[in-house]
Amino acid sequence: MPMMVIDGIDIAYDIIGDGQRPAVITPGGWFSKDTPGVRALAEKLAEGGLRVLIWDRPNCGESAVSFAGPSESRMNADVQAGLLRALRLSRALLVGGSAGSRVSLLTAIRHPDVVERLFLLWISGGAVGLAALAYYYCHESLAAARPVAWRL
Question: Whole-angstrom Cα distance, residue 97 to residue 120?
Answer without folding.
Answer: 6
